[in-house]
């Protein structure tokens, strides 16, 4: 039986049950009583800062008051009106940077209202019900193509379907959901929540999903524009940035997103091989998710190596502390210059501003979380490496909208993608019904 | 350590905390435990006539109002007087008093308004060694339908009559327990005094329906689909009780009549406030029913700690101290001008003061960029609503304008002299100041 110290990439470093426990819900849901107590802490602020801080502008004081007055399902509806993926956002939003970070009680006491958990309480109570909470308008006869079944695409599809349009979602992968299904740490979305959420969302009707359909492979933008009244691109960032250092092609080195994807799709996490000494290179949420999950799989040592200082790290302080609490070591100001080994990685050399000699770290697994980029060329104007958009997601091409991570201006958050998809859908709807 | 000993109508007790007549005092077992826990006295659960005792409902008899964490804020009950035989209660009272001679034991009594009924029961009570009697003129449900309890408390002539009988028939001090279910509590208090009462106690419970079941549309507590009004008590009733106490304490006719304060007393501070309004002692029911007898520890320690801090050697040093400061509206100083002040360092920018003032009051708070909230002195009428809705203690305070400064709202110079409505030029019946 392997254990934490077994060298190389091996599965079952811990007892399978222990691994299952490790991947349990990070924040267990609130009980009804806990939700009442938590809701009572909300001050019902005027022009509430939490709403301003929410990319989807959920009326947070209202939904919390609805929980407090015994109407959690109505609270859920208030959330879903603004954000149809409010269930996932309740689980994965970096609330410490958004609503809870803006909560006046965070500023006053360092103890915000538990908005994320309350949102989960409300959305869960709606989703536990039979049926879908919204009713579709009469069919308009218009047909919209949505490329990408991630948060942006699904939010867009839902809003369009609700308005009575017919929607086909073209999804390259075997399942819809995008990063909710394939990215994001498993302990943030347990019990197959991403898939359940998509199923629930489809309850609106009028949405068809075609999986295994990728733009640039068996689909072209021209065909889509030709065959539909409008097109929304929610492509995400399919490409991964390469590490510009010798040795990055060695066995044991791979993009963190691939590692996370395998993890998310594994029925039994204990079957996944993980290194004894894992080094994750990067400083965003993906880096933290990869590092923490390596540790939960039983790696003896996991190091998160970031090229700048703590303050510059894109992952929030809360995420950093979560990693540290799980036993991940955070190392700052280190840039990888060489990955060494003999076919399989054994160590990495970093530079550090205060060290003349390179800093060496042992590693039998290296996960690269140094950013993703837009894959393929859609023939659209770009802003930087992303699709340029104006207003609610209009691209350089008429009839084509874009949103989520593939579009310029976003912040790579699920909640922002949802806002983009929703707003583009409203704009598409307006343009389809204009003058008519 | 301050001395908590109280002498109420010559009845001495080691502290001013008595248990009110209610379930906590309904039997020997409870009362012994209460005395062991340190309560200064008890008013035994109300006794009725000899004979078959009253019966209670066999479904729920309480309803409650809660705060978010299920903190009990108000309790409602439809319980009647004791449902145990008179002789059992009397026997137990005698045994308890014998074993706890230093504690006050008061018998609460409710019998029909017939002289004979009182003549029968009083000697039996006297024989127990009880220190006094309390006439229950307050129970607002059930018993009132039978012409007793609040039905008596709402008819001053009946109060006077039964009080007089009791004073004639017994040597025991007589406390008349008043109902709050009346427009002006001074009427019943004056009647009690006229009948010769040694003291009044108040309040009994307030007619109430705590909630309605929205599935079957019945008031709660629900007995087989129906409900009836109950009596409300607990923290929620304290302000109502204190006003009634103050009305009696400052009334020219009843001023000086000893008062035993009851209604929502939950902490030492509540007790101190009642006593400052003129109560010689206090009685507690709901707080004990919610938390058990042990709360008296907090009450005793809190009261004596506060008295030490203030330099009061005994409770009589502060009883009634607030009474002279309770006055009529017409005598309030209209030249006392204050303005709200927001402490920007304490402000957490929730905007509740703004919403309250802008939507519902005087538009006297400005919301500036960066969620900075500032009082507009030219609009502020000093109503205090912002202070009351602000979640941060002392963040908003009312500060007095010094005499000689200009009130920006009225444009008038603040005058130093006291002036009230009776002399105000807008008052059609104003008298010229002498
Ligand atoms: C269940 C219950 C039964 C009561 N029974 C009596 C009673 O028999 N006689 C009486 O004078 N008051 C009775 N009361 C009223 C209390 O003595 C007291 O006046 C009232 O509850 C207000 O005090 P509190 O707010 O501390 O509870 C009863 C109160 C309750 C809650």
TrEMBL record, chain B:
It holds the Pfam family DHO_dh. Residues 338-370, 371-401 form the 4Fe-4S ferredoxin-type domain. The keyword Oxidoreductase applies. InterPro entries: 4Fe4S_Fe-S-bd, 4Fe4S_Fe_S_CS, Aldolase_TIM, Dihydroorotate_DH_cat. One of its GO terms (cellular component) is cytoplasm. It catalyses: 5,6-dihydrouracil + NAD(+) = uracil + NADH + H(+); 5,6-dihydrothymine + NAD(+) = thymine + NADH + H(+). It comes from the Bacteria. Keywords: Iron, Iron-sulfur, Metal-binding, Oxidoreductase. Belongs to the dihydropyrimidine dehydrogenase family. Involved in pyrimidine base degradation. Catalyzes physiologically the reduction of uracil to 5,6-dihydrouracil (DHU) by using NADH as a specific cosubstrate. It also catalyzes the reverse reaction and the reduction of thymine to 5,6-dihydrothymine (DHT). Heterotetramer of 2 PreA and 2 PreT subunits. This is dihydrouracil dehydrogenase (NAD(+)). It comes from Pseudoroseicyclus tamaricis. The gene is preA.
């Amino acid at each position: 039986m392997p254990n934490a110290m077994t060298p190389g990439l091996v599965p079952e470093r811990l007892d399978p049950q222990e691994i299952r426990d490790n991947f349990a819900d990070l924040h267990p849901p609130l009980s009804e009583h806990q939700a009442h107590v938590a809701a009572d802490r909300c001050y019902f602020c005027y022009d509430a800062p939490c709403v301003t801080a929410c990319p989807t502008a959920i009326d947070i004081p209202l939904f919390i008051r609805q929980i407090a007055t015994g109407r959690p399902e109505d609270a859920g509806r208030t959330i879903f009106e603004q954000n149809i993926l409010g269930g996932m956002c309740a689980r994965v939003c970096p609330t410490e940077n958004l609503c809870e970070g803006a909560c006046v009680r965070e500023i006053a006491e360092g103890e915000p209202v538990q908005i994320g958990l309350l949102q989960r309480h409300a959305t869960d109570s709606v989703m536990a019900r039979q049926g879908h909470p919204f009713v579709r308008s009469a069919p308009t006869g218009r047909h919209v193509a949505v490329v990408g079944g991630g948060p942006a695409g699904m939010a867009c599809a839902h809003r369009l379907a609700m308005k009575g349009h017919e929607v086909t979602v073209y999804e390259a992968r075997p399942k819809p959901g995008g990063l909710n299904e394939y990215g994001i740490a498993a302990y943030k979305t347990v019990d197959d929540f991403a898939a359940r959420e998509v199923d629930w969302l489809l309850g609106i009707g009028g949405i068809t999903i075609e999986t295994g359909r990728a733009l640039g492979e068996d689909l072209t933008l021209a065909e889509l524009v030709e065959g539909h009244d409008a097109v929304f691109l929610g492509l995400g960032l399919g490409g991964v940035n390469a590490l510009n250092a010798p040795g990055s092609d060695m066995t044991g080195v791979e993009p963190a997103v691939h590692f996370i994807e395998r993890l998310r799709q594994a029925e039994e996490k204990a079957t996944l091989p993980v290194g004894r000494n894992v080094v994750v290179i990067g400083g965003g949420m993906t880096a933290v998710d990869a590092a923490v999950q390596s540790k939960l799989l039983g790696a003896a040592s996991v190091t998160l190596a970031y090229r700048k200082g703590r303050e510059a790290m894109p992952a929030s302080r809360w995420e950093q502390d979560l990693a540290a609490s799980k036993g991940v070591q955070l190392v700052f100001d280190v840039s990888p210059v060489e990955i060494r080994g003999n076919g399989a990685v054994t160590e990495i050399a970093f530079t550090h501003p205060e060290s003349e000699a390179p800093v060496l770290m042992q590693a039998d697994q290296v996960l690269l979380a140094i950013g993703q980029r837009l894959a393929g060329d859609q023939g659209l104007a770009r802003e930087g490496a992303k699709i340029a958009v104006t207003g609610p997601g209009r691209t350089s091409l008429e009839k084509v909208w874009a949103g989520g991570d593939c579009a310029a201006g976003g912040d790579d958050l699920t909640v922002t993608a949802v806002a983009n998809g929703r707003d583009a859908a409203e704009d598409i709807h307006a343009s389809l019904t204009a003058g008519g | 350590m301050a001395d908590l000993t109280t002498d109420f109508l010559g009845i001495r007790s080691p502290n001013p905390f008595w248990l009110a007549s209610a379930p906590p005092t309904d039997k020997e077992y409870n009362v012994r435990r209460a005395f062991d826990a340190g309560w200064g006295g008890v008013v035994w659960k109300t006794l009725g006539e000899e004979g078959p005792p009253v019966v209670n409902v066999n479904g729920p008899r309480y309803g409650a109002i809660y705060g978010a964490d299920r903190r009990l804020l108000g309790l409602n009950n439809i319980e009647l007087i004791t449902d145990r035989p008179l002789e059992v209660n009397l026997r137990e009272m005698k045994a308890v008093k014998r074993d706890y001679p230093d504690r006050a034991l008061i018998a609460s009594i409710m019998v029909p308004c017939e002289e004979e009924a009182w003549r029968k029961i009083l000697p039996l009570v006297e024989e127990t060694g009880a220190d006094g009697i309390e006439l229950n003129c307050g129970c607002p449900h059930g018993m009132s339908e039978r012409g007793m309890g609040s039905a008596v408390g709402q008819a001053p002539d009946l109060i006077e009559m039964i009080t007089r009988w009791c004073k004639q028939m017994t040597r025991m001090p007589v406390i008349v327990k008043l109902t709050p279910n009346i427009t002006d509590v001074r009427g019943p208090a004056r009647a009690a005094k006229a009948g010769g009462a040694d003291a009044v106690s108040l309040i009994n419970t307030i007619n109430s329906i705590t909630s309605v079941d929205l599935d079957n549309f019945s008031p709660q507590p629900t007995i087989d689909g129906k409900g009836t009004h109950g009596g409300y008590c607990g923290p929620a009733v304290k302000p109502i009780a204190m006003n009634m106490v103050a009305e009696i304490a400052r009334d020219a006719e009843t001023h000086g009549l000893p008062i035993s304060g009851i209604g929502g007393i939950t902490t030492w501070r509540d007790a101190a406030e009642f006593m400052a309004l003129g109560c010689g002692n206090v009685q507690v029911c709901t707080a004990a029913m919610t938390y058990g007898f042990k709360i008296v520890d907090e009450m005793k320690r809190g009261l004596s700690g506060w008295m030490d801090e203030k330099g009061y050697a005994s409770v009589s040093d502060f009883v009634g101290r607030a009474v002279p400061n309770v006055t009529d509206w017409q005598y309030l100083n209209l030249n006392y001008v204050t303005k709200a002040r927001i402490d920007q360092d304490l402000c957490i920018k929730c905007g509740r003061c703004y919403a309250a003032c802008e939507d519902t009051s005087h538009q006297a708070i400005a919301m500036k960029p960066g969620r900075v909230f500032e009082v507009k002195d030219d609009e502020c009428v000093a109503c205090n609503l912002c202070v009351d809705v602000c979640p941060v203690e002392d963040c908003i305070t009312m500060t007095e304008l010094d005499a000689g400064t200009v009130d920006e709202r009225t444009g008038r110079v603040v005058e130093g002299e006291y002036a009230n409505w009776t002399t105000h030029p807008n008052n059609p019946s104003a008298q010229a100041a002498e």
